[in-house]
Design brief:
heterodimer; A: about 650 residues; mainly alpha; Cytochrome Bc1 Complex, Chain D, domain 2; two-stranded antiparallel sheet; globular; B: about 140 residues; 2 strands; about 45% helix
Chain lengths: ~650, ~140
């Protein structure tokens, strides 16, 4: 609904204004003396260390950006010497940016993209923009400037524009709406939480650092700057200071990184996250809870304050799985909703021909996907659907749904599949009637109505919410890798080495983000879409002609783009890619190793993946596979529930799960 | 002239008293002047959902007692912006989280609060965003 404020009251504040006429001259003189004397004895405002630190980092970044702009402006031509000098100036400026990133990314995430945007153009929706049409956002800043330096025909004016946009964006960090946060301690704990999460997920992967030889040196600088900022915070807000044990752990993290090799491929990402960043994150979370810190930003509304580590499955609040039952907290009622959802999930009554259920394509014994068929059979048995059925386990950790990101809510996604003529071919009113003609369903859903007072009658939304709650309840299980990260078990060397490759040389983690290894960038911002050039067949004869995201949001950048899938349980969910073209994980790794479709010689004009080879050895690939197998989660087997009898006797011959 | 029966008078007084005590069945609302008349039914349904949702999620803290009656205070449009409503008031962080009150439900509540007939009791004190509560 569009918001309309016609005829709305403006809030009135009853401010008391003393009338000057009523004041006697004597009183005015007395007042003047009072004001003058208080001004004389009032101390000059003292800037606390924390605010001074913020101002220093902001000022330093501005100075560096200005110097960089001047250097670019002074360039005579873009020869090798000039490019080298500008690159070096960019690196110096990046250091100032890294000191300020603690605040920049949190306090104004939109302007942060202009300081260090990872992509020239972004279209996609963020968590708080989910309900708006995606719009084109031009990136700017240091990463893009450095990448642009390498382009043939690099022009001074275009380079300058990327840096000028950063300088303009920096102004927002002086606005009252931003600096007001600095006067109280709460925001720091949320800035710090985001920083720690990104130290695990973004800063160590090269996501925003085009020169990968600089990833670890920058990490060293960033941690040292973080320590200084944390000390300034502790000094200004002693009542909210992080405990001594936190400072000791941060010092240990710095010691660890300083002792590690500088090449990010040789860096031990596994130990860095497990022994240092995740425990720091856990302590910061504990501090948020114990001090009752309150956030004023929607950046935090996707993160769960109760999550104890980066690898806790409940880190993100994720999708609304409860739907119409969202205000129900009673575990017994929720268990009943889940039971009904489970039964409906297996019930072919939901399809137009009573022969197909959700479980037809999302088979519980196959990790809620279909590992036999490349793509599901069409509803009318004539041919197959164009896309592979994804697993539903952890679907609620996605931001947008379907491989083209067509849906924003689990319930609307389920409704669309149910009513799609090629999938379940159902008509909603008929389906609801069929379900309510089963006395057991009618009785059970009617009993739940007292929990949905705004919906006095059983509706499709009740059925769909039960289904989404059912399958989302499978998203709580941990993998052996989570257990290793949380010190519950130890990880094999192959898994550790595989993870370290995943985070560095194999360049997987720049799209499959820690901790869920899906395309949802921490802290649950948007869904990333990528063009990687998936072929139509294993011989790479041609590019898959599926337009992907383009069908939803037509743009030059979205043709053949697909939402980055999650890697949890990936070893159980073959075949792979949107069209199920690859039967094993090895073929998927080979696609990336060769530089995507373009690296295989296909014409993919807008590929978002470098077409250069990753140069992975056979041993590297084996380790990557070992790591991915460790992402299998400890899923329980699903009970077989009987289907409720219908008043319509013909329907009682239906089989749980359907027949195709 | 027949005398007015005493029991009937008693019943009349009881009915009048009960009517005064009972909550109003439905709050009157004004349909926007430039609203599309085809959508009047949708608007009414949304208004009624909003009324229920307000009672479920908001009334507990915001309703006032005036002369022994429960009164819904008048909110102003700037107080009813999604983002600000969810983030600027500390307790709303949990109570109005998307997982408890969806975006659509928040819209329903806004329609109810913006178009109901004002009660004449402004929300007080106005919840002007102040600094977050002092930490322990």
């Amino acid at each position: 609904m569009g918001r309309s404020f016609e005829g709305a009251d403006r809030s009135r504040t009853g401010t008391y204004r003393p009338s000057l006429k009523a004041m006697r001259p004597l009183n005015i003189c007395a007042l003047a003396i009072l004001v003058l004397s208080s001004a004389a004895i009032a101390p000059a405002p003292v800037e606390e260390p924390y605010q001074a630190r913020y101002a220093h980092c902001l000022g330093d970044l501005r100075t560096q950006l200005q110097a960089l702009s001047v250097a670019i402006g002074d360039m005579k031509r873009t020869d090798a010497n000039s490019v080298s000098s500008i690159r070096s100036s960019i690196h110096t400026t990046r250091r100032a940016l890294k000191a300020f990133d603690l605040w920049a990314r949190y306090l104004d995430p939109i302007n942060h993209r202009r300081l260090n945007g990872p992509l020239p153009v972004e279209w996609e929706t963020e968590v708080f923009e989910k309900y708006e049409k995606p719009y084109r956002r031009e990136g700017a800043g240091l990463t893009l400037a450095e990448l642009y330096l390498d382009e043939a025909g690099c022009e001074k004016d275009s380079l300058l524009r990327l840096v000028s946009a950063s300088l303009t964006a920096l102004g927002s960090y002086e606005a009252d709406s931003v600096t007001t946060h600095l006067s109280t301690p709460d925001h720091f704990l949320f800035c710090n939480r985001l920083m720690l999460l990104n130290l695990a997920a973004i800063y160590t992967t090269g996501f925003e650092c085009p020169d990968t030889t600089r990833v670890i040196p920058e990490l060293r600088d960033m941690l040292a700057e973080l320590r200084t900022s944390t000390e300034a915070f502790n000094s200004t807000f002693p009542e909210a200071a992080l405990p001594r044990v936190y400072a000791e752990r941060l010092a240990a993290a710095i010691g660890f990184v300083n002792a590690q090799p500088s090449a990010y491929s040789a860096f031990d990402h596994f130990t860095f996250i497990r022994d240092h960043i995740s425990p720091l994150f856990g302590m910061n979370q504990e501090h948020i809870r114990s001090t009752g810190a309150r956030s004023r930003s929607w950046m935090d509304y996707s993160l769960n304050n109760n999550a104890r580590s980066i690898f806790a499955k409940d880190l993100y609040i994720g999708q609304d799985a409860k739907g119409v039952f969202r205000r129900v907290d009673d575990p017994n009622v929720l268990a009943e909703v889940r039971r009904l959802g489970h039964t409906l999930f297996m019930d072919p009554l939901l399809s137009g021909n009573n022969e197909r259920s959700c479980a037809s394509c999302h088979r519980p014994e196959m990790c809620f996907t279909d590992t036999v068929l490349v793509t599901p059979i069409a509803f009318d048995h004539k041919g197959s659907l164009p896309r592979n059925a994804p697993s539903l386990v952890n679907a609620d950790l996605n931001h947008l749904l379907m491989q083209d990101g067509r849906h924003i809510a689990l319930q609307t996604q389920a409704h669309a599949v149910l009513t799609a003529p090629t999938e379940m071919g159902a008509e909603p009113n008929t389906t609801l009637k069929k379900v309510m003609d089963c006395p057991e369903y009618r009785q059970a859903f009617s009993a739940l109505l007292r929990h949905t007072p705004t919906r006095p009658e059983v509706s499709m939304d009740h059925l769909l919410s039960a289904i989404t709650l059912y399958y989302s309840s499978l998203s709580v299980y941990a993998s052996t890798f989570d257990d290793a990260m949380n010190h519950a078990t130890t990880a094999d060397d192959a898994v550790r080495q595989g993870f370290n490759l995943f985070m560095s040389k194999a360049q997987c983690a720049t799209c499959h983000f820690v901790p869920h290894f899906n395309g949802v960038k921490p802290p649950y911002i948007g869904s990333e879409f990528e063009v990687i050039g998936v072929p139509e067949d294993l011989a790479y004869a041609m590019l898959s002609d599926d337009a992907g995201r383009f069908d939803v949001n037509p743009a030059e950048e979205t043709l053949h783009a697909f939402r980055t899938g999650g890697l949890r349980n990936i070893a159980r969910t073959a075949p792979y890619m949107h069209n199920g073209v690859f039967p094993t994980l090895r073929e998927v790794i080979d696609l990336y190793d060769a530089g995507g479709g373009a690296g295989h010689g296909l014409d993919v004009a807008n590929q978002t993946l470098s077409s250069y080879s990753l140069d992975l050895s056979d041993n590297d690939k084996l380790r990557l596979e070992a790591f991915m197998r460790s992402l299998n989660e400890d899923l329980p087997a699903q009970a077989r529930l009987p289907l409720p009898a219908s008043k319509n006797k013909e329907l009682n011959a239906r089989r749980p799960g359907g027949i195709y | 002239m027949k005398r007015f029966p005493l029991p009937a008078l008693g019943i009349l007084i009881t009915v009048i008293t009960l009517q005064r005590c009972a909550p109003k069945a439905e709050l009157p609302h004004t349909y926007p002047a430039n609203g599309n008349t085809d959508l009047r039914g949708d608007f009414t349904a949304q208004f009624q959902r909003g009324e229920k949702l307000y009672g479920l999620n908001c009334g507990g803290c915001h309703n006032k007692r005036v002369n022994g009656r429960t009164v819904i205070p008048d909110f102003s449009a700037p107080q009813l912006l999604d983002y600000e409503m969810r983030t600027q008031y500390p307790s709303h962080g949990e109570k109005l989280h998307d997982s408890r009150v969806s975006k659509e439900e928040l819209d329903d509540i806004q329609v109810f609060l913006l178009h109901r007939r004002p009660s004449g009791h402004p929300i007080s004190p106005p919840p002007v965003p102040g600094p977050p509560p002092k930490m322990n």
